[in-house]
Specification:
- With about 325 residues, the protein is of the alpha/beta class.
- The protein has twelve helices and eleven strands.
- The strands form three sheets. It has a six-stranded mixed beta sheet, sandwiched between helices. Strands 8-5-9 form a three-stranded antiparallel beta sheet, sandwiched between helices. A two-stranded parallel ribbon has the order 6-7.
- The longest helix has 21 residues.
- The chain is globular and about 70 Å long.
- The termini are far apart.
Length: about 325
Amino acid sequence: MNTYLRAAALLLVLAAGAAWGQTAYPSKPIRFIVPFPPGGATDPVARMLGAELSKSLGQQIVVENRGGGGGTIGVDLGVRSAPDGYTIFLGSTGGVGINPVLMAKPLYDPVHDISAISMLALSPLLIVVPPASPIRSVQDMIAAAKARPESIAYGTAGSGTLHHLAAEMLQQRFDFKITHVPYKGSGPAATDLLGGQLPLAFLDVSSIGVHLRSGKARALVNTGAKRSAVVPDIPSMAEVGVPDFDAVGWFMLGAPANTPAEIIALLNRETVRILATPQMRQRFILSGIEAKSSTPAEAAAFIREELAKWTRVIRSAGITPG
């Protein structure tokens, strides 16, 4: 009997020791990789979320900017980190949904190399014209382009960007041609539109919003399937007679593949809670984006859908991976 008692006591001691050795997560600062330079439009998003996560988790969230490669350099650093919950990263339309398709040798596989935590935000894309333009609607634009193929130039933030591919998708849908003028960012494209050198542009709100409010530019449509809280007065594609068309910028929160499910669940729960607060939603809108949370499974499914969509557009446009 004493033997059994001694064995039981030993098991209790070992179990207590094991429990004592387990440290609650998180027990140290968490690195939050942002795949864009400091001061960009996405930086405030990460820092706002990081500050709130730091409060709720009781550990510092250290934002680390790693720009380059259209968002791929930072994501690559993130997916190659240890899957222990102490590295998270911001994924975007370009870095996760488009650029891996455009690269001949992708740095990572967004489907298999990322543990999706949650969607974070949607960023509306607008088709914009000068205020005096005779083009008053998407239908006007299509009709004018069909009447004079390739005579209408449109500006974007650059080749292979969401702005460019949204225009390609629209041309494929309605079988018309407009001439692409790629710029090095939305800012220069907006400048030429405002200066009268460009008749049409696909622009994000951060680059043109103030000029829309002042009447110096006019938006035909938000290229998303639904209206955006960021620009509630601008109709969606469905509302102007173009159903099943959705081209929006987006951001998501990810971690390296194989990060423990319980850590993903904790980070998801806190992220969803933070994004649901009125203060955070308003702060996002002021930054030109709309808060949008999800479950990890929903975020992973969204990534797969975006990759499939933009792969079709890229192949149909004859764009060769480089």
